[in-house]
Amino acid sequence: MIRFRIKELVAEKSFRERRKITMSEVSMATGVNRSSLSKMSNPEVAHSTTTAAIDSLCKYFDCRVEDVMEYVPEEK
Asked: A Pfam family this protein belongs to (predicted)?
């Protein structure tokens, strides 16, 4: 399963910039739909996204792809 780390990235950026960053702000800055960000933030929802969205998130958070998402083996 792919797990997105959106909440962690928002928390880290908020801490670095010493201000609250909202999903709406991330959406406006990246062009990634707010509902898509919410789905990515919820580990219980399987969400598919585009490479363009991942690219935009990497630019906004100044990070690598593996910082935005990770593979987590499913328990059997």
From this structure: HTH_26
